[in-house]
Amino acid sequence: MVEIFSSIESYLNSILYPLNWVMFILIIGGGLYLTIQSKAKPLLKINKAFRLLLSKDQSQKGISSYSIKS
Q1: Is the dihedral of CA 29, 32, 34, 37 positive or negative?
Q2: What is the DSSP letter of 27?
Q3: How many CB atoms sit inside 10 A of residue 35's CB?
Q4: In this structure, are residues 43 and 35 in contact, taking their beta carbons and an 8 Å threshold?
Q5: Residue 23, CA distances (Å) to 18, 19, 27, 30, 51 in order
Q6: Membrane-crossing residues (predicted)?
Q7: Predicted confidence (pLDDT) per residue in 17-58, tens digit
Q8: Which of 2, 23, 30, 45 is most exposed, with the fewest beta carbons within 10 Å of its own?
């Protein structure tokens, strides 16, 4: 019984292993293609995105984590 499962596993690995590389190449190639087609606009605005993500809005009301009493 174990021999049957190991032979099935080796057969499936022989089929699926090359497909891993094909999928890897397609994903990287697709990303590069879309980056070129969009003229790298998302990459040009990444600085602004991180600035907005990491900045704190001073006008926002809320509870400070230091003023919470338990």
Answers
A1: negative
A2: H
A3: 13
A4: yes
A5: 9, 6, 6, 10, 34
A6: 15-36
A7: 989 999 999 999 999 999 999 998 888 889 998 888 888 766
A8: 2
Q: How far is CA 6 from the centre of its chain?
A: 33
- Looking at residue 66, its amino acid is Y
- Compute the distance between CA of residue 50 and CA of residue 52 in angstroms, rounded to an integer: 5
Give me the half-sphere count of Cα atoms (radius 13 Å) on the Cβ side of residue 44. Answer: 6
Reported pTM: 0.53
Q: Where are the domains of the chain?
A: 2-50
Q: Tell me: pLDDT of 70 over 60.
A: no
Spatial contact of 49 and 41, defined as CB atoms under 8 Å apart:
no
The alpha carbon torsion through 8, 9, 14, 17 (nearest 10 deg) reads 150
- Cα Rg of the chain, angstroms: 25
